[in-house]
Design a protein that fits this description.
CATH architecture of the largest domain: 3-Layer(aba) Sandwich
Bound molecules: cytidine-5'-monophosphate
Distance between the termini: 31 Å
Helix content: 25-40%
Shape: elongated
Structural class: alpha/beta
CATH superfamily of the largest domain: CoaB-like
Number of strands: 22
Largest sheet: 8 strands, mixed
Oligomer: single chain
Length: about 400
């Protein structure tokens, strides 16, 4: 599980330090390599020699060691690892971490590291329960430091309660879980994100057999839904009629009319991101006939009277507390793509508009390729002509980065 992983283990001064030797063994058994930093207090409990022997690596103790600095500077030591584990993490070291001190090698490395840190606290129960420790813990958790334990039980000092360091096997399990989650995050950057996509045309009935529709193929919307799901997002695709297969891993809600599409979208809330790629008919027939309209010899053709459909994109963009963190619309334009799309973004109240040229010469409507501009509050980004799948991939990458910036 940990093959090829490099762990930097910080051993600070507590009676639980003897368990760190077993922790080193457990990490190495799973294929990890282990470098250790031993604080001065830690060396009162375990010897540098036993740590070095078990880890088969040099033990670092001194911030101002000429030899260590020439071999591997302390900044490099803090960054060369894949993960930093602090076990035992004493009340003192947690306090120094919380206040950003750099008064020994351990604290300096923990301040300088750009890697994630997991702490296994170990201390007397009163020290653990003290508001100072709990406040430090809250600060560290808020900064993203991970914790395993402490456990409840007998203490070396004769008291009973929380403060026993987690067992080495538990710490190894936490390290394995960390790398498993990191691998998942890498392959599925949108894991935990909820997404809604509209796609396809809508059809608006004139009578039970006739309808108004448009030429949308649904290809771009379906590609976006598929790319979101592949990136790990829990994706609902609300689609008007298209012959396209459902993208893998996507929940499809099939609708026909704009009003049904709006109802389905509202039922899918709350979501983190909504992408409205459907070509929604702007109008429906007012007073749809309940029976097929008959063609009567000599009678004038019927006149259709239209009513405005709800604007799904604008409705989602102004849905108050239920508004997705990121709302993205499309602007299919036959001329002045950028100008029209910029104006549309403001009119609809969405965050981004993907403007695309659907003029007769573009060959994009219903086709495989798309030439788009990504328009946001910060500017206009022209994308080269690419397949609709590639547009979807690139858009999903941009969505991932934007959601990270909008917690
Ligand atoms: O107004 P226009 O149709 O050009 O706007 C296009 C954008 O608005 C697309 O994102 C489309 O999905 C969305 N839209 C909508 N509901 C409508 C009309 C358009 O969601 N009734």
């Amino acid at each position: 599980m940990l093959a090829g992983k490099s762990i930097l283990l910080v051993i600070s001064g507590g009676i639980a330090a003897y368990k760190s030797l077993e922790l080193i063994r457990g990490l190495k058994e799973r294929g990890a390599s282990c470098r250790s930093i031993l604080t001065t207090a830690g060396s009162e409990f375990v010897t540098p020699l036993s740590v070095a022997a078990l880890s088969e690596n040099k033990v670092y103790m001194d911030l101002f060691s000429l030899t260590d600095e020439s071999e591997m500077g302390h900044i490099q030591l803090s960054r060369a690892a894949d993960l930093v584990v602090v076990a035992p993490a004493t009340a003192d070291l947690l306090a120094r971490m919380a206040t950003g001190q750099a008064n020994d090698l351990a604290a300096t490395v923990l301040l300088a590291t750009d890697k994630d840190v997991i702490c296994a606290p170990a201390m007397n129960v009163r020290m653990w329960e003290h508001p100072a420790t709990q406040d430090n813990l809250a600060v560290l958790k808020r900064r993203g430091i991970g914790f395993v334990g402490p456990n409840e039980g007998d203490m070396a000092c004769g008291e009973w309660g929380f403060g026993r360091m987690a067992e080495p096997a538990e710490i190894v399990a936490a390290v394995e879980a960390y790398f498993a989650a990191a691998a998942t995050r890498r392959g599925r950057p949108l894991a935990g994100v909820r997404a809604l996509v509209t796609s396809g045309p809508t059809i608006e009935p004139i009578d039970p057999v006739r309808f108004i529709c448009n030429r949308s193929s649904g290809r771009q919307g379906h590609a976006i839904a598929g790319a979101l799901a592949a990136a790990g997002a829990q994706t609902t695709l609300v689609s008007g009629p298209t012959p396209l297969p459902a993208p893998s891993g996507v929940t499809v809600v099939a609708v026909e009319t704009a009003q049904q599409m709006l109802t389905a979208c509202e039922a899918a809330l709350p979501v983190d991101v909504a992408v409205c790629a459907a070509a929604v008919c702007d109008w429906r027939v007012a007073g749809e006939a309940g029976e097929k309209i008959k063609k009567t010899e000599g009678a004038p053709p019927p006149v259709l009277s239209l009513a405005e459909n709800p604007d799904i994109l604008a409705t989602l963009s102004s849905s108050g507390a239920r508004r997705p963190r990121l709302v993205i619309g499309f602007a299919a334009e036959t001329s002045d793509v950028v100008e029209n799309a910029v104006a549309k973004r403001l009119r609809k109240g969405c965050d981004w508009i993907v403007g695309n040229d659907v003029g007769p010469s573009s060959g994009t409507f219903g086709g495989e390729d798309n030439t788009v501009y990504l328009i946001s509050a910060t500017g206009v980004e022209p994308w080269p002509r690419m397949s609709k799948d590639a547009v979807a991939q690139r858009l999903v990458g941009a969505i991932g980065r934007a959601l990270e910036d909008r917690p």
